[in-house]
Write a structure and sequence with these properties.
About 15% of the residues lie in helices and about 35% in strands. It is mainly β. The protein has one domain: Porin (Beta Barrel), CATH 2.40.160.210. Strands 1-2-4-5-6-3-9-12-11-10-8-7 form a twelve-stranded antiparallel sheet. Strand 5 and strand 6 form a beta hairpin. It is globular and about 55 Å long. It starts with 14 loop residues before the first helix and ends in a 7-residue tail after the last strand.
């Protein structure tokens, strides 16, 4: 077989493939105080593990062990060690607590020697309409998603952009301005993107929450590059996730357009702290994310 020219042949990852990665198999008794689950890695990116998949599988692993009727409320995750991208993902889920309307689960990703590679605490609970709700959060001004381009349409065949960021993916990502992948734009600590799955999602609250976790790892640290006037995919540029937090304010249906407003206000000695707010098409604030990541800026373009 000859070498595939990625300038003329770009692979894709489809929504069925993502759902297949989120279809974890239980090894043993799912009701046991400690249960074990196995998931599939995704084929792209081939050189590293996409952190969003780990977040999503951690939610599925925990969510399959909580009572029916409870939905995801929050996730707190730590990226402990590098995760090989080609091996099955083996999870250990522990029942940390079970109250009348709340459940806490710890999901740990382990290697073949039992070492922890990634861990996440997830909180689950019943939603009560008789308790107070309010929000003053508002999304930032942005063109409508219909007036913007998907990443795959912005950078077709541009080998300066890594394949994962220009291939067809299961979630549409449309930046409000051209992302800083190949050229410098205005200095700003904010990036806005519109997100939507390619096709409907199953009527499954666990899967819907998992897909939110999956996309919450996209764009969140990009403002570390725009605020530094640096090119995201310049040689030597890198993002290494350390922690990730996600809070659900509502049941999110990402098969409709949502706006994701991301900001990096502080970078301290290479540690970028990013925050993101997710809004649905009606402007309702539905989720919040934050991440701490190590950032390395690549070679700057010649003046």
């Amino acid at each position: 077989m000859g070498v595939v020219d990625l300038r003329t042949h770009t692979p894709e990852m489809t929504m069925p493939e993502l759902l297949d990665c989120l279809d974890l198999a239980c090894v043993g008794d799912p009701a046991a105080p400690t249960s074990r689950w196995e998931g599939r890695p995704q084929p792209h990116p081939s050189d590293r593990m996409f952190g969003g998949l780990l977040l999503a599988q951690a939610i599925v692993a925990g969510g399959r062990t909580v009572p029916v009727g409870q939905q995801a409320l929050s996730l707190q995750a730590d990226f402990v060690r590098a995760v090989p991208p080609e091996r099955p993902l083996r999870w250990e889920v522990t029942h940390v607590s079970d109250a009348t309307s709340l459940s806490t689960r710890r999901a740990r990703l382990l290697d073949d020697d039992g070492r922890e590679l990634f861990s996440a605490m997830t909180l689950w609970g019943e939603v009560r309409d008789d308790l107070p709700s309010s929000s003053s959060a508002q999304h930032w001004p942005s063109p409508p998603p219909e007036d913007l381009l998907d990443l795959e349409d912005r950078f077709p065949g541009d080998i300066r952009v890594p394949l994962w960021w220009r291939m067809s993916r299961p979630v549409r990502v449309r930046h409000a301005v051209t992302p800083p992948y190949t050229e410098l734009g205005p200095r700003t600590d904010r990036v806005t993107a519109h997100l939507r799955t390619k096709g409907p999602l199953p009527d499954d609250r666990v899967l819907r929450a998992a897909v939110v976790a999956y996309v919450s790892d996209m764009c969140l640290i990009e403002p570390a590059f725009t605020t530094a006037k640096a090119i995201r995919h310049a040689p030597g540029s890198r993002i290494l996730s350390l922690t990730h937090a996600l809070t659900f304010h509502a049941d999110v249906h990402l098969d409709a357009w949502h706006q994701y407003d991301c900001r990096v206000a502080t970078v301290a000695h290479g540690r970028a702290h990013g925050t993101g707010e997710l809004f649905d098409g009606d402007g309702r604030h539905v989720a919040s994310a934050s991440q701490l990541a190590l950032v390395r800026l690549g070679a700057m373009p010649s003046a």
